[in-house]
Amino acid sequence: MCGERCRVFCSQWRLWIRPLVFVVYGAIILGFVPYLIYTLILHEINGFKIAWLIGGIFVFMAIPITLWEIVQHLINYTKPKLQKHIIRILWMVPVYALNAWLVLGYPSSLARYLDTARECYEAYVIYNFMMFLLNFLDDEMDLDATMETKPQTNHIFPLCCLKPWRMGREFIHRCKHGILQYTVFHLLTTFIAFVCGQLGVYEEGKLSPKNAFVYLFVVNNLSQFVAMYCLVLFYKAMRRELDPMSPLAKFLCIKAVVFFSFFQGVAIMFLMKAEFMHELFGIPADNPEEAEKQERKDSSIMQNFLICIEMFIAAVAHHYAFSYKAYIDEEYQTGNCCHTFLLIWDISDVRSDIREHVYVVSEGMKRRLTSRGGRGGWPGGTSAVGGASGGDEHTRLIAPHAHSGSRSTHRYMSTSDSEHDIVIHQGEGSDVEDIKAI
């Protein structure tokens, strides 16, 4: 009798697993962590070791939340063109969290290499979010034609004095390539920073004209500003069409992790320079050179400790903002999860988009230099506007009638080389799209 009850209880694990996780996590945060801090302080343990231990607790609470969401997306992989980008975005939490925790514990030996990898992934995430938005819209409507029918979207502060981009393909391409440039620039500046670090002319946080950090810092920030500005401008133009997939929550998750962590680091650095934290960290005031080194070290420690905690909050936010529930379809036969997982890491679609970006930029420069080409310099034409159906995110993504209307040309969908394994059958004159992973 007892064995039967245990079997039934275990078979209904989906009903009690979430409340159990809430209770366990709540007990750790409200009970175990304060008790651990109190005990370590009583034993006069070094403050940096305490930060590393506490940061590790939050990191290893954040990672299971994200991994659970990723696995659920792989199990319910019903929209490969969208979920591919979602899974790549979700990996941001483990990448950031593990990077911050390892750098916190081993600042001298691992920081340069891990920070290089994290910064590259940061640019990759922003690119994937833009492609997620484009693929969602391109699957629902003729995006070019829809954009051409919309009222002119003007630039916003602080670029409100610039000439507006013509609505339609030009607007979409400018937004897309404004984000892609950050991916390209960030890869280049990260590589340059790594080389300069090996040559001894790059020290993070040191404000000196002889330090490459200053120049790369300015370039990276201008590039990041352009990318996020283009993302905001695109959202402003297509807000009504994007509403069913709750873009604001998703956008805030991306912006909070990328922008907040950056400005947080800048704020900590300036607080150190203003000597607001010298007494807290015991930084010597009589030796300026030693004080500067200690400032950079302590700024890095504080920044990475805060990121460890913030990634737990980000994991919870991602769990709700990029939920797998909108993609559940009982009638859909998904492929092997391991095979699907490998498809996620095929970045040939990124290479294709970067090649396109380089081509478009080079052609644009040629047109300017030769004074050729009119306003409609973007390739391709337009067709009739496809209707955007109403409803929530699940209705738009899964319901068979979600793609009714004129057939989309899927002009902006990014496709990797490995996606020939995803076969799309769409009958002539049929409104139902049957997508199966082989």
UniProtKB/TrEMBL annotation:
<keyword id="KW-0812">Transmembrane</keyword>
<feature type="transmembrane region" description="Helical">
    <location>
        <begin position="89"/>
        <end position="109"/>
    </location>
</feature>
<dbReference type="Pfam" id="PF03619">
    <property type="entry name" value="Solute_trans_a"/>
</dbReference>
<feature type="transmembrane region" description="Helical">
    <location>
        <begin position="50"/>
        <end position="68"/>
    </location>
</feature>
<feature type="transmembrane region" description="Helical">
    <location>
        <begin position="247"/>
        <end position="272"/>
    </location>
</feature>
<dbReference type="InterPro" id="IPR005178">
    <property type="entry name" value="Ostalpha/TMEM184C"/>
</dbReference>
<keyword id="KW-1133">Transmembrane helix</keyword>
<dbReference type="GO" id="GO:0016020">
    <property type="term" value="C:membrane"/>
</dbReference>
<feature type="compositionally biased region" description="Gly residues">
    <location>
        <begin position="373"/>
        <end position="390"/>
    </location>
</feature>
<feature type="transmembrane region" description="Helical">
    <location>
        <begin position="213"/>
        <end position="235"/>
    </location>
</feature>
<protein>
    <recommendedName>
        <fullName>Transmembrane protein 184C</fullName>
    </recommendedName>
</protein>
<feature type="transmembrane region" description="Helical">
    <location>
        <begin position="179"/>
        <end position="201"/>
    </location>
</feature>
<keyword id="KW-0472">Membrane</keyword>
<feature type="transmembrane region" description="Helical">
    <location>
        <begin position="20"/>
        <end position="38"/>
    </location>
</feature>
<feature type="region of interest" description="Disordered">
    <location>
        <begin position="371"/>
        <end position="394"/>
    </location>
</feature>
<feature type="transmembrane region" description="Helical">
    <location>
        <begin position="121"/>
        <end position="137"/>
    </location>
</feature>
